[in-house]
Every structure is written in structure tokens, then in C-alpha cells.
Automatic annotation (TrEMBL):
It is an enzyme of class 1 (oxidoreductase). The keyword Oxidoreductase applies. Keywords: Oxidoreductase. GO terms for molecular function: all-trans-retinol dehydrogenase (NADP+) activity. Residues 9-20 have a biased composition (Basic and acidic residues). Belongs to the short-chain dehydrogenases/reductases (SDR) family. It comes from the Eukaryota. Residues 1-25 are annotated as: Disordered. Gene3D superfamilies: NAD(P)-binding Rossmann-like Domain. It comes from Handroanthus impetiginosus. This is Dehydrogenases with different specificities (Related to short-chain alcohol dehydrogenases). Its EC number is 1.1.1.300.
Length: 390
């Protein structure tokens, strides 16, 4: 089991002290048009602090992170052919879990598994790992994946929504579904996948949904009526697209966690992996790529960056922590930092009114009815406007 000296309970106490939403934030009467300059500065300060001190803050963690017994547990990991997702999939499989690599490039995943099996040969039973195709830039693909998995009637103990994009410096791009690419890949597609897989998660409870997020959500601001940033009110930048998508993910996760009754046995958590050297660097300007190579001391490698996700996906402490937040009607879902301790998301993430509007708009954009979660919990079916069968 991962050893976290101060424990989730102490982190919760700290969250109480520092994280209680400010009056007026969750009950705003005046519509905000964007982040205030103080919120913006605090966001940049948070990012700078994490980059400079993340190794010191996480010095209590072992690397690799020891995992509790996970034999016979099943995990779906999106985006697992590189970076954090690749490390998460490998370590879960080597610890005895059944891992499903949900990826767009199935050949690359198959080649990776072949190498892992060769390296693992002689240490015990072969790794229990498989590949399924999933393209988050296509909501049809998401529906097909969920239908194929649910049709197995097998277990699913943790859905790890790891896949994401950050096209730094690129112009605004849209998926074939008509959504801004950051918003679709980082938020809309994982949201659709999470809801459609609820039948499998309920069948395997206690289970959990883990969303790999980012402290860059501190720089995000979501207008529920303009989630794709097409109204012209704001000038789009890739940083805006990424930050907004990560904030939307936290808001949606918070409402989803509230909508799931305790008896369903499903908990939702968002995690920050820290600032990690991953394939996102290939989209960075050459100058920033050079900086990435010059400051390896500050930036986590993928193995170090995978620890908070692995902790959230496997540690039994998380269940009690999430349930206590739900019982107290805490405004946001569990959010774990790169040191595997509870952290406080941004002030905007505590905006309950906006979170519910983001929830409603998200369901509309992904083609699900407003009562989709309730129907699935009761054992019913829901129709999505996406998918080949529709």
C-alpha cells in the first residue's frame, strides 16, 4: 500500500481550513465574464510554486509507488501508449491487475505489450493486459467502446481518464463532432465515457473514476453557454482551451460525484500529476522544449508523475475520503495533488452554480438526456445521439 505519512484525513483538515468556498463565490448574482486579476495571479503563482517545489513536497513518496493488492481488479486506462498513462498501465499490470489500454493507436499499444511481456518473462504469470480502440476525437468511437465493454458483462473497478491534449501555440481546431479539440478530448469524451460505463462500474462496486487533471485549471474560466469558445466574446488561445477543459472536468466530476448515491459504490476523484515530462512537449515551441531538457531536476519523469493517479486508482483510503466529502455536501469532488494528498482546487472550481450549468451543457453536447445517470443507476438504458446504432 502507498505510504502517505500525513494521510488523507489530515489533508482533509487542511482542505477545510483553506478550501472552504468564499461567500459570494457559489451564490453569485452577477455573471462573471472571466477570472479576476487576483485569481489570475494566484493561478500563475500556484503553477510556479508547483514547478519549483514539487520534488520537495513529494519527497515522502517512494518511486515507484508501492501498490496494495490488486489481483483480479480490472482497470481501463485511456491514452496509455505514452507518458503517464503508459506508466500507469504498466505498473497496474505488473502488480497483478487486468489492464485495458484504451487507445487510438492499437498497433503501438500491441507493440508495447509485446515488449512488456518479454521483459516480464520469468517473473511469474504473463501480464493480464489487452488493447481496445478508443478515439476521443470521435464521440461515436466513445459510444462504440462503451457498448463493447458493457456487452462483456465483466467487471470494471476503475476507469482512469488519462488521455489528454495540449496543443500549445496551435490555432483553434474542432473535432468532426463540432467541438473545440481540447474541450472534447480533455472533458466531453471522458465525461461521456464515464457515464456510459456506469453499468459496469456499478456491477463491480466499490469502484472509482479517476480523472487526470492539471493545476492549469487555476487559469481556466468556463462559460457554460460558450464552452467551445465560438461566440467571439473571448479570443481563443491554446492555453485557454486547455485550462478551460480541465476546469470543466473538475466541475462535471463534482456534480457527478453528488449524483451518484452512496449505495452505487462509485467514487469520483481528480488528480494533479505535477509538471511532468511527457509527449506534450512535442507540441511545445523549440525554446520551451530546450528548457524542458535543461531543468530535469524540477520536472517529474512519467514514473514519478504516475504516482498520484496510481494512488487514486488503488488506495482503499480514497473510498472513505470521497464518501465523507459527499456526506458533508462538499462543493467539489476529491482532488489529489502530486504528493497523493488532498488539495484544494481553484476558487472558480467551487462555483456550484456554474458547475451545475456546466453539467447540463455537457450532457447536451455529448447527446445524453438530463437524467442519464439516474436511469443507469436504476438499471435502465439511455440513448445517446452518437454511436453507429443511432
Amino acid at each position: 500500500m502507498a505510504s502517505v505519512p500525513s494521510g488523507l484525513e489530515k489533508g482533509k483538515e487542511k482542505e477545510r481550513e483553506n478550501g472552504k468556498p468564499l461567500e459570494g463565490v457559489t451564490n453569485q448574482k452577477v455573471k462573471k465574464e472571466g477570472l479576476g486579476w487576483i485569481e489570475w495571479l494566484m493561478g500563475w503563482f500556484t503553477l510556479a510554486y508547483e514547478m519549483l517545489f514539487q520534488r520537495i513536497v513529494a519527497s515522502n513518496l517512494e518511486n515507484p509507488l508501492p501498490l496494495p493488492p490488486i489481483n483480479d481488479l480490472t482497470f481501463i486506462v485511456t491514452g496509455s501508449t505514452s507518458g503517464i498513462g503508459k506508466e500507469v498501465a504498466r505498473q497496474l499490470a505488473e502488480a497483478g491487475g487486468h489492464v485495458v489500454m484504451a487507445v487510438r493507436n492499437t498497433k503501438a499499444a500491441t507493440d508495447i505489450i509485446k515488449k512488456w511481456q518479454e521483459d516480464w518473462s520469468g517473473r511469474g504469470l504473463p501480464l493480464n493486459i489487452e488493447v481496445m480502440e478508443l478515439d476521443l476525437l470521435s464521440l461515436d468511437s466513445v459510444v462504440r467502446f462503451a457498448e463493447a465493454w458493457n456487452a462483456r458483462s465483466g467487471p470494471l473497478h476503475a476507469l482512469i481518464n488519462n488521455a489528454g491534449i495540449f496543443s500549445i501555440g496551435e490555432p483553434q481546431k474542432f473535432s468532426k463532432d463540432g467541438h473545440e479539440e481540447h474541450m472534447q478530448v480533455n472533458h466531453l469524451a471522458p465525461a461521456l465515457l464515464s457515464i456510459l460505463l456506469l453499468p459496469s462500474l456499478i456491477r463491480s462496486s466499490p469502484s472509482r473514476i479517476v480523472n487526470v487533471n492539471s493545476l492549469m485549471h487555476f487559469l481556466g474560466f468556463v462559460d457554460p453557454e460558450d464552452m467551445n469558445v465560438t461566440s467571439g466574446k473571448r479570443k481563443f488561445t491554446s492555453m485557454m482551451g486547455y485550462s478551460n477543459s480541465k476546469l470543466a472536468q473538475i466541475m462535471f466530476s463534482s456534480v457527478l460525484n453528488k449524483r451518484l448515491p452512496t449505495e452505487a459504490g462509485i467514487n469520483v476523484a481528480c488528480v494533479s500529476p505535477g509538471i511532468v515530462q511527457t509527449n506534450v512537449a512535442r507540441d511545445l515551441p523549440s525554446v520551451i522544449q530546450a528548457a524542458y531538457r535543461l531543468i530535469p531536476f524540477f520536472i517529474f519523469n512519467p514514473e514519478e508523475g504516475s504516482r498520484s493517479t496510481l494512488f487514486a486508482a488503488t488506495d482503499p483510503q480514497l473510498v472513505d475520503y470521497c464518501e465523507s466529502l459527499k456526506a458533508e455536501d462538499w462543493p467539489v469532488c476529491a482532488f489529489l495533488s502530486h504528493d497523493c494528498r488532498p488539495a484544494n482546487p481553484s476558487e472558480e472550481a467551487h462555483n456550484v452554480e456554474t458547475a451545475y450549468r456546466v453539467w447540463e451543457k455537457t450532457l447536451e453536447l455529448i447527446g445524453l438526456p438530463s437524467d442519464a445517470v439516474e436511469r443507469l443507476i436504476e438499471g435502465g438504458e439511455v440513448k445517446c445521439k452518437y454511436g453507429d446504432s443511432q
